[in-house]
Write a structure and sequence with these properties.
The structure is a homodimer.
Chain A lengths: L3 H4 L14 H7 L7 E5 L2 E9 L3 H18 L4 E5 L2 E6 L9 H16 L2
Helix pairs in contact in A: 3-4
Amino acid sequence: MVTGLRRERCVACERGAPTLTAEELADLRPQIPDWQVVEVDGVPRLTRTYTVRNFAEALALTNRIGELAEAEGHHPSILTEWGRVTVSWWTHKIRGLHRNDVVMAAKTDAVAESGH
Amino acid sequence: MVTGLRRERCVACERGAPTLTAEELADLRPQIPDWQVVEVDGVPRLTRTYTVRNFAEALALTNRIGELAEAEGHHPSILTEWGRVTVSWWTHKIRGLHRNDVVMAAKTDAVAESGH
């Protein structure tokens, strides 16, 4: 399923840009149904864990997500472990979630699907 | 500085193998002075954060550590972020620290140094 978000690009995000409102986030989440909102140090992040077969596959997925991040100029944290990869997106500059983060979550799903 | 631990190889580790005693760990830690022992879900891990210049360097270091892990058949968790990489070693099978983990921490330091 190709969703609209996956086709968007990250926009430049300045300090002071507005975080997503609860309503905006609620509208977008059906497009990224497998992502959770987790708060770390008071900052919400979008987080998803992908299950893979071993460590080599986890590292390969980490690299594909890393390439995506470099291409878009927006960077997640990626936890690589044997058999799984956990990705978290948030916007450091605004200490919260920007539309970019939802776009990147959708694009991450596309990247993860393309590897299978 | 090349330390003795860096020259060791991981040994096969079976369920039921002994965890390091506090004394054994204390004897080895001077060889990995920058590693902390952090407990997660009741299981101690050896953890260190390496600072690098950007996301691309973090991903490159993650890959070098991943190659080391595959070569030794022992796998850490690696958190890749913009400008830093956090590595954690522990032995899942024994829910604790094995000498292998200290060996791998020392080897990780060697890998990280070789990239600069």
